[in-house]
Amino acid sequence: MSDIWTPAKVGNIETKNRLAMAPMTRSRAQADGTPGPLAAKYYAQRAGVGLIISEGAQPSEDGQGYLATPGIYTDAHVQGWRGVTSAVHAAGSRIVIQLMHAGRTSHPDNTPHHRQAVAPSAVAPGAPIFTATGMQPIPEPRALTVEEIEQTVNDFRKAARRAIEAGADGVEIHGASGYLIQQFFAPNANLRTDAYGGGIENRARFAIEVARAVAEEIGAERTGIRLSPGATLGGLDEGAEGPDLYRYLVRELNKLGLAFVHIMHFGNEALLADIRRLWDQALILNRPDRALENVGSDVKSGLADLEAYGQFVLSTPDFVERLKIGAAMNVPDRGSFYGGSPDGAGYIDYPTLSEMAGAK
């Protein structure tokens, strides 16, 4: 039995406790995709957790989905992220950069090249997306060719290397939340009839190829992947075979010896138990609806090695300290989750307990 205050080993990353900051898009990067000037302070403020998983960073121009999200494929990106990783390390925590390709969840107005989005198949999600001119319908994407799939795998590989150059302790491959990798899993988004479509082995192929390429490039001990079994985000429907696809996928990923799998859990407890049984390395669990009084329960039961938290950590930089003494958390301001003013309102101005006491 472990509790959340004991150290953990995640691949070759040693964490001071078993709490992680979940990845959260904040849309505050500069126009060229370099992390914004306040990003280092934002992440360092939250370094009480043992492991920070950064917001998604696109591995290429094609990978961008939303406005003002950071990249990790140019020298400027590396330099910007280096400031973030250095600040987090100085504050006593570890950080992995999430590699996120949005696939069809994109709009030409949001990308630097203004081209049509790419996806497994030419199927639009039937949902809107925010752009500089307001909400617009997401256009139909273009189906990737096999050669372009190979190039996209290579984009992930190169982005992982750039993340390590930027000082990250590792990377998390984003295979969840309705983005490109999960789009390959879902039969309603993946209509392919080649080696990347059809049966569950084919629909899982792209994810496995990306994970293998990244692990070869930077080491399996620095490579993790995030999955969200059953998630319908982005209009996806994984169908009746969904649970079996994840069982197959986790078995295959486990053979690679990755540092961790990060599960965004939506309620299939039997599948979660199977994933735990099939996975030999660290398992990070994010239950989006977990109540504060249940923090630590999955680590204590052995179901998870770390627990990840999003809005609690976003709104409460001293989340760990408050958790230890049972203090109330700050109330998150949903209106400032994305974008924001240059002064960092809703980003770096959430107060700690000590700051609140000093203001009295």
UniProtKB/TrEMBL annotation:
InterPro entries: Aldolase_TIM (IPR013785), OxRdtase_FMN_N (IPR001155), Oye-like (IPR045247). Its cofactor is FMN. Keywords: Oxidoreductase. GO terms for molecular function: FMN binding; oxidoreductase activity, acting on the CH-CH group of donors, NAD or NADP as acceptor. The keyword Oxidoreductase applies. One of its GO terms (cellular component) is cytosol. It comes from the Bacteria. Residues 4-327 form the NADH:flavin oxidoreductase/NADH oxidase N-terminal domain. Belongs to the NADH:flavin oxidoreductase/NADH oxidase family. This is 2,4-dienoyl-CoA reductase-like NADH-dependent reductase (Old Yellow Enzyme family). The lineage of its organism: Bacteria, Pseudomonadati, Pseudomonadota, Alphaproteobacteria, Hyphomicrobiales.
